[in-house]
Amino acid sequence: MQRKIFIIIKVAGAIYTQTKFLNLTLGVVPLAVGKPLERKDARIKVKGEAQYNFDLSFSDEQYLAVVRSPFAHARIKKITVDNEKLEQLGVTVGLSKDIPGKNIVHVILDDWPLLAEEVVRHVGEPVAIIVGKSPTVAKSAFSAVHVEYEVLPAVFNPDEAKDHPTIQVFGDNNIISYWQQKNGDINKGFAEADVIIEGEYRTPAQEHAYIEPQGVIAVPLGRDEITIYGSMQCPFYVQRAVADILGYPWSKVTIVQTTTGGAFGGKEDQPNQLASLAALGAYLTRKPVKYLLTREEDIENTSKRHPAIIRVKTGATREGILQAVQVEYLMNSGAYSTLSPAVLYRGALHAAGPYKCPNVDVQAYAVATNLVPFGAFRGFGSPQVLFACEEQMDRIATKLGLDPTEFRQKNLLHKGDTTTFGQVVDHSVGMSETLKQAKEKSEWVQKWKPAPGFNQVIQESRKGKYLWEGIGVSTIFYGVGLGSAGKALSRTGSYVQLEPDGSVVFAVGTTEIGQGMITVLSQIVADELGVEYSKIRMAPVDTSRVPDSGPTVASRSTTFSGRALQDACKKIRTLMYEIIAPHLETIPSDLQLEGNYIISKETKRKIMVDDAIKIMYQERGQVAMAGWDVAPPTDFDNEKGQGNPYVTYAWATNIVEVAVDVQTGTVHIKKIWAAHDVGKAINPQTLEGQIEGGSLQGMGLGRFEEIVFTPEGQVMSNNLGTFLVPTTKDTPSIHSIIVEDPWKQGPYGAKGFGEQPLMGVAPAVTNAIFNAIGVRISEIPATPERVWKAIQDKVQEEAI
Amino acid sequence: MKIEIFINGIFYQKDVPPDHRLLDFLREDLGMKGTKKGCDQGECGACSVILNGKVVNSCLIMMVQLPEHSEVETIESTDSMVLSLQDSFVKRGATQCGACTPGMIMATTALLRNKPKTNDREVREELSGVICRCTGYQKIFDAIKDTQEHLERG
Asked: What pLDDT does residue A475 have?
């Protein structure tokens, strides 16, 4: 007996020692994935050495100025060019007739001309280009291009524009796109509901306000090749657009993305137009042409978040179970379709929120008006509907006398549940966990109490209590990747090359726009190849390095370029094992990667990856591989309003604490808790950076960010002094909470989520305002004027 | 127009076009591209530099209005405060797109020189002229605290 125990101890000890020994001798380097490693681009950025569009120069470079329409809707009667003056100034003018290819900027529907021919449809629409040796010289030639207009009636509001009898901006009814979501029987749902709430909500045009304004440089090579350098998210979009405009084969159009100083969706489709304008200038002059927008030109003429009107009717049982959700979503798309069909798709699918509901009817329309075309902005059509949805949820909770978190909890999607559009979410559903953790960290249970009666607020404020505190919540979800509507683009390429010294260079087709993609992808490559993170470098994005990998949008870069890199690295490991196996006296299938060693499973003999790479070079082995990834299948039937539109979902809870001054309507944001299920945090530090930055943009949307137009359709808030974004003084403390419920098909379990931090903050703000003063805000941003007016209206209404 | 000026301690005597602003002088006349530009109107703070001890928007300063032998400090400075902040910004993940970073670091340098023990409230007040659209400022605050601790330790 004693002996037996001794043996057991001895064996256990040996196993322990061996494991310990293995770990030590294997020298398992700390794995890169999951660590808050230093950003790859941080050192050059803090030194000011990163080269943005305005830092680049080319010999004999010229500058572009654009003649733009001063009217929202007008017929071009005549364009006269004063050639004598042009010659005097030494400038070149380009009109639509000078475009060698098609006069269409391709995005989705091909209705967007590069230069207007017969009709202009928004203030700022390009009519002609001027190229001169400096911006001042180019602009001085504006007076040499005289455009005679016949002004036409214009329409700016989607309610009026939809099916307008006489004003046609797009097609015959101004409806650019239509999507629907349908589930069960909506009438039956409302019949079975005990409480029904109806609401109408409005959301503003929001400017991205990236710190580096838009800018591109077109560098021609003779008359049949061109390279575009510039700030952008989607080089392959730009390649297609420029090739169409110039009539070149794609192979002769190269796009090189330069360090991009923020984008947020604003540099998704817009660079197609800007690069095409510069490319035309370069084509006409055969010189490098720079088009760097001033801040005003940028805010006035480039895309923004779609303003929207959302009408929602929601029904629930007495017990707090959702029965019916009906939504009408009108998205103001501006004068051209650009990305609106895709933006609307995401909006329509997110309109009923992350809840179970048996009866749903969402009707979503993108409506053309005579405003500047609206486009992509972090959240892509979803923040508008989620604001409406989360307001409705809060109003029902109030009506039923329930804690809004408990009411949501009864309806939230869990693993195995079916979304309102019929998709079973079978795993990676951290929704409830985000709510649970956000509640704990914010001490919701201790802090939340029902909103005070409005009468009480007013009476006490008259006695001097102006400041009222409140807490609000929102629960949201995000369909990861392009979804079925963008399925054709849902593929990504990669290229990985081992260098003779054991370092690695890789390329992908998605871009670094500040979000940290280079860092996160380098961490993935490090672990896939067993090479130290410090030895990995990403090559600048250039359309000739990897095939069209789709756009850098939809929170897809980590997930889908990550998968493409895993594919290339797996192929490289196979090549390595074939060459290394004889050296370790084994067969390739016996080898595997452990840390930075290749090890025989059988004999435990091993070789460092560094040395293996050197041997590969000595033996003239293949040392580079291309990777390819096709996103998992998605589908959606717009006739039925049902399908499996996204590969998976990210989930989030936002809790916001505010103090509202009832005398002025000012809302002070005190704290934000943002809990996000991201599958896996590849780099927790950059991930927190995404949460914090996105949350503050979401707070901006909820509190004060709004582009104001004149009654004639011109952008009025055209600089950062009138379009306000949050400063250090406005930011509350933001508490990031990372939840990791891995997605099996994502790299290391990761799923995209970069947009999500913005999406749910605005409704949490307005719900907190209600919780503070008992007043609902149905139009954001909740500016002091708007909050003050809502208070005064209610005072009148209730005759207090 | 002849200008005599110190940039990061280096003396320059230059002929400068009369319409040049400090930002143009740095970027175009001297080719120092570390100072970024975001709005050309003094609204974003990306072009912040230190002029005679005070942080300014270099896009709002005309070269003709500068006192003779002015001292300008930019992100290219090798001063220990600047280097320490740069290091903290890297370690704390306080830079994302990076376009505001040089201006933010110069504004912070001026603040910490004047008030090494400055508190959170003052930091928020003093840096409100530099807009960062990416980070939500949290990691910038962390980096500043790190630098303060680092400087205190010597």
From this structure: 98
- pLDDT score for B154: 75
In the 3-class helix/strand/coil scheme, how is A199-236 assigned residue by residue? EEEEECCECCCCCCCCEEEEEEECCCEEEEEECCCCHH
Q: What is the pLDDT of residues A358-380, one digit of tens each?
A: 999 999 999 999 999 999 999 99
pTM of the model: 0.95
Record the tokens describing residue B28, joined without a space: 């175009």
Contact B133 A692 (CB under 8 A): no
The confidence band for A222, taking pLDDT boundaries of 50, 70 and 90, is confident
Residue of B nearest to A734 (CA): B138
From the CA of B32, how many Å to the nearest CA of chain A?
A: 9
Shortest distance, CA B13 to any CA of chain A (angstroms): 24
User: Among B99, B135, B139, whose Cβ lies nearest the Cβ of A212?
Assistant: B99
Distant-in-sequence, close-in-space partners of A793: CB < 8 Å, separation ≥ 6:
none
Which domains are assigned to chain B? 2-73 (3.10.20.30), 80-153 (1.10.150.120)
Summarised one tens digit per residue, pLDDT across range A136-175 is: 999 999 999 999 999 999 999 999 999 999 999 999 999 9
Give the number of other Cβ atoms within 10 Å of residue A535's Cβ.
17
CB contact under 8 A, B91 and A38: yes
DSSP notation for A63-130? EEEEEE-SSSSEEEEEEEE-HHHHHHHT-EEE-GGG-SS-S---SSSS---SS-SSEE-STT-EEEEE
Q: Where in chain A is the domain with CATH 3.30.365.10?
A: 308-483+638-797, 491-630
Q: Are A295 and A371 in contact (CB under 8 A)?
A: no
Question: Token match 């075309």: residue?
Answer: A373
Q: Count the helix, strand and coil residues of chain B and give each as a percent rounded to the nearest 5.
A: 40, 15, 40
Question: Residue A3 has what pLDDT?
Answer: 45
Q: What is the arithmetic mean of pLDDT over A336-351?
A: 98
In chain A, what residues touch B39 (CB-CB under 8 Å)? 213, 295, 719-720
Q: Per the structure block, which two tokens stand in for A142? A: 């504006």
Beta carbon pairs, A and B, within 8 Å:
165
Residue A535 neighbours by CB under 8 Å, 6+ apart: A502, A503, A504, A526
**SS3 per-residue string spanning A558-623:** HHHHHHHHHHHHHHHHHHHHHHHHHHHCCCHHHEEEECCEEEECCCCCEEEHHHHHHHHHHCCCCC
ipTM over 0.90: yes
Could you tell me what percent of chain A has a pLDDT over 70? 96
Which pLDDT tens digit goes with each residue over A567-586? 999 999 999 999 999 999 99
Q: Is A793 exposed, middle or buried (0-12, 13-18, 19+ CB in 10 A)?
A: exposed
Please determine, for residue A434, whether its predicted confidence score (pLDDT) is greater than 70.
yes
Q: Is the dihedral of CA A402, A406, A408, A410 positive or negative?
A: negative
How large is the average pLDDT for residues B86-99?
A: 98
Question: Taking a C-beta distance cutoff of 8 angstroms, is the pair A198, A312 a contact?
Answer: yes
Domain topology for A308-483+638-797? Aldehyde Oxidoreductase; domain 4 (3.30.365)
A491-630 folds as Aldehyde Oxidoreductase; domain 4 (3.30.365)
Do strands A733-739 and A666-677 pair parallel, antiparallel, or not at all (unpaired)?
parallel
Tell me how crowded residue A585 is: count the other CB atoms within 10 A of its CB.
11
CATH of domain A53-152+214-292: 3.90.1170.50
Residue A150 bridge partners (DSSP): A75
Residue A210 and residue B97: Cβ atoms within 8 Å? Answer: yes
**pLDDT for A351 beyond 90:** yes
Sheet containing A536-538: order of strands? A536-538, A504-508, A491-498, A624-630
From the list A435, A470, A449, the residue with the least C-alpha distance to A654 is A435
Of A50, A209, A693, the CB nearest to B98: A50
Please give the helix or strand (H or E) that residue A326 lies within, else none.
strand A322-334
Segment A217-233 mean pLDDT: 96
